[in-house]
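Complex 373.
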Amino acid sequence: MKIESVHLYHMELPMQEPFETSFGVETDKDVVLVEVRTQEGAVGFGECVASTAPLYSEETTGTAWHMIREFFAPRLFGLKFEQVQDLSQVRSALAPFRGNRMAKAAVEMAVWDAFANLTQKSLPTLLGGGKQEIPVGISVGIQPDTPALLRKVEGYLAQGFQRIKVKVKPGRDLEPLRELRKAFGDIPLMADANSAYRLADIEHLRAFDEFGLMMIEQPLGHDDIVDHGELQRQLSTPICLDESIHTAADAQKAIRLGACRIINLKLGRVGGFAEALEIHQIALDHHLPLWCGGMLETGIGRLHNIAVTSLPGFVLPGDTAPSFRYFAEDVIDPPVDFVRPGFLDVPFMAGTASRVRRDRLQKWVQSSEEVRP
Ligand code: OSB
Ligand code: MG
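Predicted structure with magnesium ion bound:
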């Protein structure tokens, strides 16, 4: 398989409702999609999870577009893929360029997706996954007040979600958690702080222990591992790292320093499937539970999340909820939906192209560009 062209699409996709975290609000889905076409006629898609502003990470839709067009796409044209092992060449070819992992991931996953399309093998199988279905949780954004949060959570529990994650920040943390426990008892519950606290808040963070949470996600700095190690030694609640883990080496360091007991793996954050597989192996070797995080993806990213979640190390419910939670109309058809309440099936996926609705892509696309050798 050889790559013939790379197409970039910038889309604005209407979201069902705004999503608020400790760093900001997302209203419409501003997304860059990558399509690769091969000389053999196969097609693959990859979704870039960078957002409009550099708030979750330093990348944006604009920087990703620039990096892919100027540096990453041109590196693909010289590569040749015959077996699944050859796909790791994408990661090696892009490794000399620093950072920009969400942009790299979009390109890398599009190539894997095209390879699945060409060989008519299922992406979960190519990755080594064997699960037939996966349990999913939901990430609930910061709500206007606690009664609104309780109403939301009640609805999600009724829909069958297997775990509730609530976003917290200073002033919007202990009271909502206490009320959630009071209203819903012993549900699988966790909190995501998106780096809203400092190690100096340790006394305050210790108060989270009384709620028996499954974990607290990324309480401290987005680039920190050391302070999380210090905090974990003083908390009984397991720490889960999200923002701090970009590479397999980061995962090794976090484990060595005892900075987390769980990792939220996001394909975009770590640069794609090849790096994710390495982190997955490390997690298995250290008996460290993984789960697959989300970045409010369209169906394309959502299917790739499902593919990686089919691997055995993903032992906790992830954030990959059905499409309807985010979009009235997804770019894929059929959309991602429950097979039974709280569970998604791992479908046969010879890439995502056969499910991509080009007419919808056309409807929401703001600009596009083709890169050729
Ligand atoms: O920290 O996990 C996060 C959304 C955007 C940016 C960061 C995060 C999130 C979520 C939502 O928690 C996950 C999802 O539903 O896709
Ligand atoms: Mg998070």
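Residues 195 and 220 are 4 Å apart (CA to CA).
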